[in-house]
Amino acid sequence: MNKHVSILIIGGGPAGLAAGVAAHKAGVHDILIVERDIRLGGILNQCIHNGFGLHTFKEELTGPEYADRYIKQVEELKVPYRLATIVTDLKLSDDGHTKIVTTMDEEGGLTVYEADAVVLAMGCRERARGALNIPGERPAGIYTAGTAQYFVNLEGRMPGREVVILGSGDIGLIMARRMTLEGASVKLVAELQPYSGGLKRNIVQCLDDYGIPLMLSHTVVKIHGEKRLTGVTIAEVDDHLSPIPGTEQYYDCDTLLLSCGLLPENELSGQLGVTLSPVTSGAVVNESLETSIPGVFSCGNVLHVHDLVDYVSEEASAAGNHAAEYIKEISEGVNVPDSDDKAAEGRVIVVTDGGVRYSVPSILRPDHMADLTTIRFRVGAVFKDVDVVTYADDREVMRIHKRVMAPGEMEQTVLRKTDLLKEGTPSTYRITIENKQS
Amino acid sequence: MEHKELICINCPMGCMLSVDIDDNGEMKVSGNNCPRGDVYARKELTNPTRIVTSIVNVTEGELPVVSVKTKEDIPKDKIDEVIAALKGVTVEAPVLIGEVVLDDVAGTGVDVIATKNVNRKH
After folding, report:
1. Which residues of chain A have pLDDT under 70?
2. Collapsed DSSP state (helix, strand, coil) of residue A380
3. Can you tell me whether residue B68 is helix, strand or coil?
4. Domain A128-260, CATH 3.50.50.60 — does that match?
């Protein structure tokens, strides 16, 4: 006999916790959070550095402390969760309304849940691709930055003593400082792109503070060592990111950390048939953070990779609230799924161009919009002294001046519903970048 | 008149701060989106400080180490001493968030506290 649950949340990291708390507070108590680790909190457990929570709690917390704030709420509200349990299968029932979720726990026991709504909060994983393109041996000593972070901060083990870091993602920068403080010599951080992939503040307090050089437009072209890494060759790259002959430099090291970006972990979403964005690798969602499948919501790093956990929590709370609304609507029988034609009517498609890579959400349904909608986006290159401009069809809605924008930093605008609909419902809402208007 | 450019490290916004220092040493800070930026710029140019985070060993715990932080920021040039002092610290589980694991670290007058709960191994 399958178990019924109103809202099943996949993932007990920052997104899943905030979604669970919000859905409970919104009045739906028949919830289950499924977490594959043996503890709640997700990646925050190993992010022992500070800088979390300034937006949410108005104080500066470390990752574990931030997670604890939400875990406490989950415990106090008695939001049900299962640990050491993975979702192995996610599909729709034959009538398309119920989400069938199969889980497996530590003892190998399978449980099948019938959920009315599902919140996808599986997070992301590190891109290991940076390693795959590097010719040479395959010795020990090459780790993703997050794996090294796990060793150092949760197990108290050092992966090595002489370190080169490839990629300037935030975890790589954080680990440059962390390994230095633990006595390692971090030689350099090489970044393929001409700009850093991490936050400015992390370059200041993790590299500059410790005199660790950041070499932009550089990559690892050769791995040395048979059993254990003995060194790497670094070279400068040209505008097409190809190594420039003659620029090779050799560095002794026993450890190479890779911090080459994060990828949303959407295998389950794909299995369910959720439409994914080729840009973010996350689900395509509307203003309610609902995916292409009614009753399936997505939030946090599985939706698009965030820089700030505070925004993950905010987004996930919204997803939890919308899931709770969905439950209330179906229990009142008002949510008869529209036919595709009808559903498409009156939708505003969010279009991005001029250097804006994507937006979340990318579909706006005016009849479901709140007064204010937060739209988050990233740019594809470094922009200085420009305006972010938005248009409802051809009518300018907003113009915001930005001193600097970079791919490593998520941007956001807040759209007022009345501004969007001032002259009727537009077919598109466009976000673009233009030269500064004097 | 002196001009300095800084990046605020208080939060991940990373505001770019411009500081004008006049001949009397008076500072004028701009570019900050919140009052923390102003405080940071003044401090960074006179007495730079940092919160230090690390781990200390745990005995009888479900994890072998617990994450810790200085309860307040400490002078930047004391970071190495703080880290060295923490190497000698071992605490017995259970450890609770906020528990002091070392008081007055490296003569800074600041305590080091646990940032994670570590239960006893069962």
Report:
1. 1, 129-132, 335-344, 438
2. coil
3. strand
4. yes
pLDDT tens string A155-208: 999 999 999 999 999 999 999 999 999 999 999 999 999 998 888 889 999 999
- Chain B residues whose CB is inside 8 A of the A62 CB are 53, 67, 69, 115
CATH level 2 (architecture), domain A3-125+263-337: 3-Layer(bba) Sandwich (3.50)
Residue in chain A nearest B76 by alpha carbon: A209
Q: Which of A1, A79, A70 is nearest to A34 (CA)?
A: A79
Please choose, from the candidates B30, B31, B28, the residue with its C-alpha nearest in 3D space to the C-alpha of residue B15. B31
Residues of A with CB under 8 A from a CB of B: 45, 48-51, 54-55, 60-62, 64-65, 68, 152-156, 181-182, 199-201, 203-205, 209, 307-308, 403-404, 409
Distance to chain B for A330, nearest Cα, Å: 40
Across the range B85-101, mean pLDDT stands at: 96
Cβ neighbours for A151, distance < 8 A, ≥ 6 positions apart: A143, A157, A158, A159
State the fold for domain B53-114: CPE0013-like fold (3.10.530)
ipTM attached to this prediction:
0.88
Q: A404 contacts in B (CB within 8 Å)?
A: 16
CB contact under 8 A, A156 and B115: no
pLDDT digits (tens, 9 = 90+) for A46-82: 999 998 998 899 888 999 999 999 999 999 999 999 9
Question: What is the Cα–Cα distance from A432 to A355, expressed in whole angstroms?
Answer: 7
